Amino acid sequence: MVAKSKTLKSYFLKVLLLSSLIPFFVSISLLWNFISNSNEKINLANNQLKKTYDLEIIDSFHKIQGAMTVLAQSEELKNYFDSTIDSERKNLEELNKVILILQNTLPYANAKWSIINSRGKEIANLPKTNLNTRILKDIEKDRGVVFISKNNQIQFTTPISYKLTADLKSFKKNLGYIMLSLPVMEVQKVFPNLIEFISISKDLDIKNFHTKLKIEYQAESNLYFLYMYIFISFIFIVLATIWSLKIFQKNIVDKILSLRFRVRNEMEFLEKHELRNELDSLSQTFDLYLRYTFFLQKEIFKSSQLAAAGNVAHMIAHDVRKPFSKLQFFMAEIKRSKELKDIFQTVTEFEPSFKSSVEYVEHLLNEVMDARVTMLNIEQSVSFEKIIMKSFQNLSAMPAHCYVAINYDLEMGFSLQVDEIRVTRIIINLISNALEAMNYQGKIWINSKKFELNDKLFLKVTIGNNNSYIPLEYLDHIFEPFFTLKKEKGTGLGLSIAQKIVNLHGGSIQCHSNKETGVEFIFTLPAKKEEMSSMNQFLPEVIKGTKINLTDDNQVFLDNNKYLVVVDDDPLICRTWKRHLADENLIYFLSPEEFFNYYEIHTDFIGHILFIVSDFYFGKDSKYNFYDFIKNLRKIYSGKVFLSSDIKLNEEPDLKNFDIIIIEKRVYTISELTQLSRNSLD
To answer: Which stretches make up the Histidine kinase domain (predicted)?
Structure first.
């Protein structure tokens, strides 16, 4: 019935190949540049390592030349050349003493010193040996440093000259030379990584100083990884293209062709009846239009649900990742601790935060799992008071400013025939929503009253709160999956799951909202008359927040120094920054409000800021989201801002507009932030 559509598949194939091959080639180019740059840096580092080693050898040679220059200008050498027959021996001994002193200042123990006169004849040496009677010709050509490969020695030659007259105007030159012979083996004792000398310039220029060393160089990156990446990516693209074509054919092409076939049949039907009955034809056409519009509406609704599901998946990924990010800071604190009491203190400080994060992740996962529940687990009767008490016990930690009064009006003498765990989650979800909507300030009331419907006994439960309001246009949508009024938190599944569980119990749930009185959720649950022990005395009357006390001082006395500013709603993360950068100037703020309040008091504070490191989410207590904070910040501060977050935000376009540098969620040193700032300018 349905014909194949080569046109649709060809267009899809072109788009698919274009969208996959372009990133593929771009990734290959980036990977190639990365490997090339890495190898270039490795070669540069290896050359620098060898150059450093050569410079150390050259430096030791310069010390030898310095010692020879001191000897050439010494009074003892002058006296030796001016010696008479009677004083020659004494002057030679004095000269040898000077040579020994200079020898002890050098790193090489076994070096031979020789004094050569202007005729090229050796007249003194140390260690003492028979004087060389051979006349050294062309000694002037060997001035400086010469490597004699035949003897495997390095020869240093320095001319002798000194001032003769008292007025320092005349000199005696070309009296002779000082020669020092240094075996290569002596150099190898001081520098064990030296294998051999290849060439040495007379003036010890590093450009012409070549050696062979046995040091471990960094290995260059192998292109094998790049080739494997190209091969695997190509195979993946081919398989993905074939698989996508099959899915496209099944879910898109076949359905479109089927729809086209149905529309054509409808149009043929209309054309056949058009001349006989125009009104009937118009009615059929209008009916076809309505059915087609309804079909499009359902498709749009499905698309919106998929988009909402994507947002939920993004939020769940962030909240699941958050405890692990906090774990990095915890491990950094543990590594920093030197004593057992410091470790115990760190564990004590982080434990409530870890517990709160894990409880919230568990709550999210329970919501996702309950979204597909079809059966209840009703084991035994349970009192409504017990469910309320368990709900309050399982609430997440409250912010420091939380203070909410709880009022009860419960009808006694009944027990509930319900799935205790899932009903408890309903109560937790409704109370948590109420607390967040009322900004943790105000009053919550919980009422229960018997209710009969079709000879069945139910308990009518009311959970309400003041200081919040749901617009009337949203009341018809709040029980739809993925619908949420929360900006940053919430899956949009809580109320949908609550309605599903209440319906599975045979009850119903509805919501009322009024600007003056607040919001109420009213639902019914199956019950039976049964006297159960009262637990009213154990129910909480007030919900109060808790605050984490930090041991670090955050006082700052402004001076001419620059400060690193950290803005993060988690006090433990701020404390970790403070401890790890103890030697640096750092100030932290737990919210943008604290930052701007501090700025209003200390207006010159902005001029002392080096960098600002900010979180993306500032918690429930702050009225700012990240973009609001940055917009206000850029009015007073134009320096570098680093976004330290545990979620992926590389595709956010506004970040580039505000010149934001994205970094990992961990502690950085000032030098690391400075380097990242420089890299952003390249």
So the answer is: 315-529
